[in-house]
Specification:
Layout lengths: L3 E9 L3 H8 L16 E2 L13 E6 L7 E11 L3 E8 L4 E11 L2 E11 L3 H30 L1
Length: 151
Protein backbone atom coordinates (compact mmCIF):
# COMPACT_ATOMS: atom_id res chain seq x y z
CA UNK A 1 0.00 0.00 0.00
CA UNK A 2 1.46 3.31 -1.09
CA UNK A 3 1.12 6.33 1.15
CA UNK A 4 2.61 9.81 1.26
CA UNK A 5 4.10 11.40 4.36
CA UNK A 6 4.90 15.08 4.57
CA UNK A 7 6.74 16.60 7.53
CA UNK A 8 6.73 20.36 8.15
CA UNK A 9 8.52 22.13 11.00
CA UNK A 10 8.72 25.69 12.16
CA UNK A 11 9.76 27.60 15.25
CA UNK A 12 7.49 30.28 16.65
CA UNK A 13 8.85 33.01 18.90
CA UNK A 14 5.93 32.64 21.32
CA UNK A 15 5.21 30.82 24.56
CA UNK A 16 3.70 27.34 24.56
CA UNK A 17 0.44 28.51 26.18
CA UNK A 18 -0.32 30.99 23.40
CA UNK A 19 0.66 28.58 20.61
CA UNK A 20 -1.38 25.72 22.10
CA UNK A 21 -4.42 27.92 22.68
CA UNK A 22 -4.41 29.03 19.05
CA UNK A 23 -3.52 25.75 17.33
CA UNK A 24 -5.83 23.53 19.38
CA UNK A 25 -8.90 25.66 18.67
CA UNK A 26 -10.83 24.40 15.62
CA UNK A 27 -12.12 27.88 14.75
CA UNK A 28 -8.57 29.07 14.03
CA UNK A 29 -8.18 26.60 11.16
CA UNK A 30 -10.08 29.04 8.97
CA UNK A 31 -7.43 31.70 9.66
CA UNK A 32 -4.49 29.55 8.57
CA UNK A 33 -6.04 27.88 5.51
CA UNK A 34 -5.64 29.46 2.07
CA UNK A 35 -8.66 31.57 1.07
CA UNK A 36 -9.01 29.84 -2.30
CA UNK A 37 -9.95 26.63 -0.46
CA UNK A 38 -13.16 28.25 0.86
CA UNK A 39 -12.61 26.41 4.15
CA UNK A 40 -15.69 26.53 6.38
CA UNK A 41 -16.32 24.61 9.60
CA UNK A 42 -19.91 23.35 9.50
CA UNK A 43 -20.10 21.68 12.91
CA UNK A 44 -21.48 23.67 15.82
CA UNK A 45 -18.55 22.86 18.11
CA UNK A 46 -15.88 25.04 16.50
CA UNK A 47 -15.68 27.29 19.59
CA UNK A 48 -15.18 24.37 21.97
CA UNK A 49 -11.88 23.33 23.47
CA UNK A 50 -10.44 20.35 21.62
CA UNK A 51 -10.85 16.91 23.21
CA UNK A 52 -10.31 13.27 22.27
CA UNK A 53 -13.28 12.00 20.29
CA UNK A 54 -14.25 15.47 19.04
CA UNK A 55 -15.81 15.32 15.56
CA UNK A 56 -15.36 18.37 13.34
CA UNK A 57 -17.05 18.79 9.96
CA UNK A 58 -15.97 21.12 7.16
CA UNK A 59 -16.74 22.21 3.66
CA UNK A 60 -13.61 22.75 1.61
CA UNK A 61 -12.79 23.38 -2.04
CA UNK A 62 -9.32 21.88 -2.51
CA UNK A 63 -9.29 21.51 -6.31
CA UNK A 64 -11.13 22.82 -9.36
CA UNK A 65 -13.68 24.74 -7.25
CA UNK A 66 -15.42 21.47 -6.35
CA UNK A 67 -16.80 21.72 -2.79
CA UNK A 68 -16.24 18.65 -0.62
CA UNK A 69 -17.46 17.64 2.81
CA UNK A 70 -14.82 16.51 5.27
CA UNK A 71 -15.18 15.00 8.74
CA UNK A 72 -12.26 14.56 11.12
CA UNK A 73 -11.99 13.12 14.59
CA UNK A 74 -9.51 14.32 17.18
CA UNK A 75 -8.17 10.93 18.24
CA UNK A 76 -5.39 11.88 20.66
CA UNK A 77 -4.68 14.95 22.78
CA UNK A 78 -1.87 15.59 25.23
CA UNK A 79 -2.20 19.21 26.28
CA UNK A 80 0.63 21.47 25.12
CA UNK A 81 2.42 18.43 23.61
CA UNK A 82 0.42 17.08 20.64
CA UNK A 83 -2.92 16.24 19.10
CA UNK A 84 -3.90 14.01 16.20
CA UNK A 85 -6.72 14.43 13.72
CA UNK A 86 -7.88 11.61 11.46
CA UNK A 87 -10.28 11.80 8.55
CA UNK A 88 -13.50 9.85 9.07
CA UNK A 89 -15.20 10.99 5.84
CA UNK A 90 -13.67 13.01 3.07
CA UNK A 91 -11.52 13.20 -0.01
CA UNK A 92 -8.73 10.84 1.05
CA UNK A 93 -8.71 7.09 1.42
CA UNK A 94 -6.76 7.73 4.64
CA UNK A 95 -5.62 10.93 6.39
CA UNK A 96 -3.66 11.06 9.66
CA UNK A 97 -2.25 14.38 10.89
CA UNK A 98 -0.03 14.73 13.96
CA UNK A 99 0.46 18.22 15.43
CA UNK A 100 3.49 18.19 17.76
CA UNK A 101 4.60 21.08 20.01
CA UNK A 102 7.92 21.32 21.82
CA UNK A 103 9.32 24.15 23.92
CA UNK A 104 12.73 25.33 22.76
CA UNK A 105 15.08 28.28 23.35
CA UNK A 106 13.48 30.32 20.56
CA UNK A 107 9.91 29.63 21.75
CA UNK A 108 7.98 26.66 20.39
CA UNK A 109 8.97 24.16 17.73
CA UNK A 110 5.86 23.07 15.90
CA UNK A 111 5.90 19.95 13.75
CA UNK A 112 3.19 18.61 11.44
CA UNK A 113 3.38 15.01 10.25
CA UNK A 114 0.77 14.39 7.57
CA UNK A 115 0.29 10.84 6.32
CA UNK A 116 -2.31 10.14 3.66
CA UNK A 117 -3.43 7.79 0.94
CA UNK A 118 -5.17 9.44 -1.99
CA UNK A 119 -8.47 8.00 -3.25
CA UNK A 120 -9.05 5.94 -6.40
CA UNK A 121 -6.05 3.57 -6.17
CA UNK A 122 -3.78 3.94 -9.22
CA UNK A 123 -5.61 7.03 -10.49
CA UNK A 124 -5.14 8.59 -7.05
CA UNK A 125 -1.44 7.72 -7.04
CA UNK A 126 -1.03 9.38 -10.43
CA UNK A 127 -3.02 12.42 -9.26
CA UNK A 128 -0.86 12.53 -6.13
CA UNK A 129 2.28 12.69 -8.25
CA UNK A 130 0.81 15.29 -10.59
CA UNK A 131 -0.84 17.69 -8.12
CA UNK A 132 -2.18 16.38 -4.76
CA UNK A 133 1.18 16.21 -2.95
CA UNK A 134 2.11 19.68 -4.22
CA UNK A 135 -1.26 21.05 -3.06
CA UNK A 136 -0.84 19.55 0.43
CA UNK A 137 2.68 21.01 0.64
CA UNK A 138 1.38 24.40 -0.51
CA UNK A 139 -1.36 24.35 2.17
CA UNK A 140 1.14 23.66 4.95
CA UNK A 141 3.63 26.20 3.61
CA UNK A 142 0.78 28.75 3.73
CA UNK A 143 -0.02 27.69 7.30
CA UNK A 144 3.62 28.10 8.27
CA UNK A 145 3.73 31.64 6.91
CA UNK A 146 0.33 32.58 8.31
CA UNK A 147 0.89 31.02 11.74
CA UNK A 148 3.82 33.36 12.31
CA UNK A 149 1.62 36.36 11.53
CA UNK A 150 -1.54 35.20 13.29
CA UNK A 151 -0.44 33.68 16.60
Amino acid sequence: MSYTQIVKEQTLNENIDKVWEFMSSPKNLEEITPNEMSFNITSSNKDEKMYEGMIITYKVTPLLNIPLSWMTEITHVKEKKFFVDEQRLGPYKMWHHQHIFEKCEQGVKMKDIITYIPPFNIIGRIANTLFIEKKVNDIFDYRKKNSRRTI
